[in-house]
């Protein structure tokens, strides 16, 4: 009977442990909900701010590309202007040379013309005497005709040279006019190039101003982004602290409930034994006394077992946590460096991730002791590291009692 009673007592304690723990700390849960809503709002503001930064960066990039194109146009215009200056100098040299040639031709023309006028005047004034003298001095009629022909050819030569000089002069003047026209066109091109340079320089200045404005806006948004990141981190810490408080309250409530159930079972057992003792005869008093001496030992064992729920081998019971698994790959959100958030190299069977507790905190889960070396999940959710991604997938999700190793 004693054994049966003890068995019933143990079954009662286990049943009490299996009863669903009611929701304690509604005030804490409300604070958690409020903090999560505030964090969600901060996350939305952060997302909006980051989108604004990306938009500003894109606009700034477009303007920088445009500025590069404007600077290229300025360089091309500078090269073109230099080419125009070179051509203008060459035309000026040609014009100076033509002006010299024109002056020489005009001088030769004037000299030839004056010489021809003198010969004509002389021949006109002395034509009769000259021909008589030529006739008298000629040795024959052929000699006379030859001398007369020479005079005629000299006159024709003067006329021809005068005509050639005039043609040369006209040609030089035509070239001079052409060069002057080209110079005027070059000056026009030069002015157009200078005007275009002024226009593009104004655009460059304006674009620089717009880029500086975008840079200022980006700096302001980055400051807002950093402030929001700090705020979100603080909210995350606060949420983890509240969840830890809630888990601690649930663990304490569960422990109190189990202790109350154990106490109630012990009281029922004591009452039953007292009633049985009163009904027994004088002959069974010795047996009842032996039974009474055994009960306290069993009660002590029961009390010890109940208290072990709150502290397993001296460890602190944290609560019934959600347990998942991850690997170091990008598929599970691992860091590109392959290191944990604490800076250690992750190791299967040792490394877990959870917020709300310091790095290095040791957690016992299903008899295995792990070390908190990573982040990524809130308090109340333990992520166990696996080297292989498939092993992490196969692990799945479970709920388990978690103890902090003291």
Automatic annotation (TrEMBL):
<feature type="compositionally biased region" description="Low complexity">
    <location>
        <begin position="284"/>
        <end position="294"/>
    </location>
</feature>
<feature type="coiled-coil region">
    <location>
        <begin position="232"/>
        <end position="275"/>
    </location>
</feature>
<feature type="region of interest" description="Disordered">
    <location>
        <begin position="284"/>
        <end position="314"/>
    </location>
</feature>
<dbReference type="InterPro" id="IPR059180">
    <property type="entry name" value="3D_YorM"/>
</dbReference>
<feature type="coiled-coil region">
    <location>
        <begin position="39"/>
        <end position="115"/>
    </location>
</feature>
<feature type="compositionally biased region" description="Polar residues">
    <location>
        <begin position="304"/>
        <end position="314"/>
    </location>
</feature>
<dbReference type="Pfam" id="PF24568">
    <property type="entry name" value="CC_PcsB"/>
</dbReference>
<keyword id="KW-0175">Coiled coil</keyword>
<feature type="domain" description="Peptidoglycan hydrolase PcsB coiled-coil">
    <location>
        <begin position="104"/>
        <end position="175"/>
    </location>
</feature>
<feature type="coiled-coil region">
    <location>
        <begin position="162"/>
        <end position="206"/>
    </location>
</feature>
<keyword id="KW-0732">Signal</keyword>
<dbReference type="InterPro" id="IPR057309">
    <property type="entry name" value="PcsB_CC"/>
</dbReference>
<protein>
    <recommendedName>
        <fullName>Peptidoglycan hydrolase PcsB coiled-coil domain-containing protein</fullName>
    </recommendedName>
</protein>
